[in-house]
Design a protein that fits this description.
The complex is a heterodimer of chains A (533) and B (498).
Chain A (H helix, E strand, L loop, with lengths): L7 H7 L6 E5 L4 E4 L10 H11 L11 E2 L5 E3 L9 E8 L5 H16 L8 E7 L7 E6 L4 E2 L8 E2 H7 L1 H6 L9 E6 L4 E4 L3 E2 L12 E7 L2 H17 L3 E8 L4 E4 L5 E6 H8 L5 H10 L3 E5 L2 E6 L9 H12 L19 H15 L3 E2 L5 E2 L1 H6 L7 E2 L10 E2 L4 H9 L8 E13 L2 E13 L5 H16 L4 E4 L5 E11 L2 E9 L1 H6 L6 E7 L7
Chain B lengths: L2 H13 L1 E3 H8 L3 H13 L3 E13 L1 H9 L2 H12 L1 E3 H8 L3 H13 L3 E6 L2 E6 L7 H11 L2 E2 L5 H10 L6 E13 L1 H5 L9 E2 L4 H6 L6 E2 L18 H15 L3 E2 L5 E3 H4 L19 E6 L6 H13 L14 H4 L1 E4 L4 H11 L4 E10 L11 E10 L5 H15 L4 E5 L5 E11 L4 E11 L1 H4 L8 E7 L1 H7 L13 H6 L5
Parallel strand pairs in B: 8-9, 10-14
Antiparallel strand pairs in B: 1-7, 2-6, 2-7, 3-5, 4-5, 11-13, 12-13, 14-15, 15-19, 16-17, 17-18, 18-19
Helix pairs in contact in B: 1-3, 4-8, 5-6, 5-7
The chains are: A alpha+beta (533), B alpha+beta (498).
Chain lengths: 533, 498
Amino acid sequence: MLKGQVSKKKLEETIPYLGLDLEEVTEDYLRIEYNPNRPDFATDYGIAKALNSFLELQTAWKDYNVSKGKIIVKVDKSVQSIRPFIVAAVARNIKLDDESIRQIIALQEDLHNGIGRMRKKVSIGIHNLDVLKPPLEYLAVEPTFLFVPLNETKSMSMQDILTSTSTGREYAHLVNQFSKYPLLRDSAGGVLSFPPIINGELTRLSSSTKNLFIDITATDLKTAENALAVVATTLSDAGALIESVKVPYPDQSLITPDLSARQEAVDVEYANRLLGLQLTKEEMVKSLRKARLQSKADSNKIVAKVPGYRIDIIHPVDLVEEIALGYGIFRMELSFPASKAVGKYNPLQVELSRVRETAMGLGMLEVVNFSLVGEDLLKNAGIDAQLIRVDKSKSAEHEVLKPSMLPTILLTLSKNIHEEYPQKIFEIGKVFIKKEGVIIEEYRVAGAVSHSSANFTEIHSYLSALVRQAFGVQILTKAAEMPPFIEGRTAEIVYNGKRCGSIGEVHPEVLQNLGMRNPIAAFEMKLSSFVSS
Amino acid sequence: MHTLEKKVLHVLQNSQSATIEEICIKAEIGADQVRRALEWLKEKNYVEISQQKIFEIAIGDEGRKAVAEGLPERKILATLVERKIASLQDLARLSGLDEGVFSGALGAARALGWIEMKKEADKTLVLLKSIPPPTDDEKLLSKLSRKPVLLESLTAEEKKVLTTLSKRPNFIQLKTIQIQTLKLTDAGAKVPVEVRIENEIDVLTSGIVVSGKWKEASFRPLNVEEQAPAIFPGKKHPLQNFIDEVREIFVSMGFEEIEGALVQSSFWNFDALFTPQDHPSREMQDTFYLAGEQSRNPASPPILQSVSNAHINGGGTGSKGWGYKWKLEEAERTVLRTHTTCTTVRYLADTKPEEARVFSVGRVFRNEKVSYKHIVEFHQVEGIVVGKNVTLRDIMGLLGKFYQKLGFQKTKFWPTYFPYTEPSLQSMVYFDNLDKWLELGGMGIFRPEVTLPLGVKNPVLAWGLGLERLVMLRYNMEDIREIYGNNLNWLRGASLRR
């Protein structure tokens, strides 16, 4: 497909500068990953087209002509409240082999998953045109309607397709809420597809298929037209002749596909300013040509003809990027912007750093835990708070935002029962509390000591030293009762008359829940009481 | 003869043979002192030393995991308990086991008669037969999880179970322990030993200092060459150490650090970044939404208006927009931020700077299945430069300098795609020790659809990168979970050298 000899090494060097990721290089192939904004890169045709321009192997422009076709797809008003839009095209004289079929299916899947939003917004059917008896009709039918879906031998009702085929189950949620389902069929009753679920077996492609019919159904017309432009352009690049299809709706009539280029202009000075370059208009036109965009200078602007498949270009800034790509990112020299700015740490982080350093000076080892924890962990630690949950977590260990630092501190110690004692640890982090309907994030420090005789007095010494050294103030401890501590060996931490934390000896029941043998004395304290943030 | 020699000989003459540990206790001296004395005694031909090997069985990492979470075959069973029957694929998925582990566990559960498999149409179904009490495997594992045991202390049955358990990778650790047994030679037995408790000071106490007793006594020599027992300093977590390194670099480059909340509205996490409301990254698959929470009025009415207009039709930014119906309810959904970019964008909206250099480091969240590659929370550093004349070349220069300060001399930039920057680049950094280029961070210029609706007129250079990957590379880690594993052995030993 390349219009010239290009060494593999040259390809390896060039491909990343087109915005493509080279995932794997072997003797026989290069595996390339492309970004979702460029579905036209889903096939070799699209990538070859870009390389031919970038390496200036082919500089002539190809016009994407659409000849007038005779096929009509009549749109019945019954689909209006279900899946209202359909656009279509015909591609004739195409030579398919297994590889090109695979690539076209890859393009189709990519459009489904990307701009098609998992077929919700757009779904595409590609059919063998020669078995069809036009005109076609797009309408909604009863779920009991029978036809033979792709890869099946018997006819099935649409409702059975949704429950007993794997594709049906995967996409059933897109139509389940409707009392009728969309259907595309020909004048003889042959079924092309049950969009957005599955095609009919009737129109299956094979390597002997020469003429294609493409249908795209959608909930949004513009997106459907964009997807059709990408598909039709790719088929044209693969050698097909594209023919239009007439699509009469109850209230309007469309002729699709529209492969005409639209105009988009970019200001020369704007482009140079963003890129930090001083390109002339001619250089910009040349750069755009290498990015496969035809353009010309018009006073202080560059006007580009943007073909229909470039659905990613929606703002002049997108042309600026094309200029940079065509110019060559590797040619752009690095610069360092002058500035009078003086760097500055965030004041709150400065306070946290001081707490951290003080704890370290007391011989405590810093640990780092997750904010999302499992509910079981909180239960085991005896924590009973109003929980803030996430929806549909993929893991049971990460379901609720922790309302306290102690559970993960205890978890840490429980995971280290085989390490040497004494163990002295601390953590600085956020907890999440719901107060009067508002979620509050609060920075706290927690610390613990564990060994065969760890006790209240010891941890009290650590806490007092920490507060005294880090903030230069004294805290008080007032007897209290709260989990996970032992009654009578628990206190609330009080500063300036306000409660700001808890301290105590961890209850043996909690130790046992966590499989621990050594006593733990621990504290947890909020830092906002000492820090003005 | 040295006092130490005398003490050891004295013990041996009274007990014929003993281990080093036994001598330590009876002679009341340290193991190293015993060893030293034995060397001397051996040379004098008073003592014979014989070696003996014994085995200690301890639980391995996987074994410990199995005790906590259940053996893989138990997990299969647990999955089946609710539904009694499931297809092979469903079961594999629901059990959450890796493919290799799953098939092994399935075989084991079947061999134990817990489950039955039958073919139906083109599917294989798995049926629950019984919920058995703890197996011998599980009993032994739980015993080992309490403390290591000596092989010789196991019963014959337990030894059989051990053989099957040790076929599972990392379930069991076998340690060989060398034991030395000491015996007196005939000469050694006849040597007269007089262990005299001389006027020797063992522990110097304040009483001895004050009373002046030390004047008449001698000090028992200590073995000053022996290894000291380990103590461990208080220390920063290696991840925090790296975060602080990154912060220092940006501050040294003239950046101001900012802070932001982890709980955000979708508006700031997505909409303000021109991410369409039906964009795949906004789905629950990838993003944590807080159950039953809604962030009412996420921004001021003019900002809501201008941002939504940018989505709908470009709203005067020169863009076509996304051309769809924008919904406030969608923007009000509460999320755990998926990137730190929401913090910088809120800063832009609040201060509308003409010039600025700002960065932040913080946690971000993704709804991932946890594995050696993925965790649900990790850290990002994110920064912006605002200025009338800032350019794409500037951001390459800034990031190049940043990587240089981190110790990477070679950097190159490739174009890429992000929804909210244009042009967009990714940085490739060369790792000398791996002889490899690795992709590290993304960057670009915020799209006008992002900045203009917030009232920011000048271009904004933006970049971000994840920190855990660099920490893994620094500590040769292969499993990202280890960073948050808080293994004290690792934390105590990890060097904080930068």
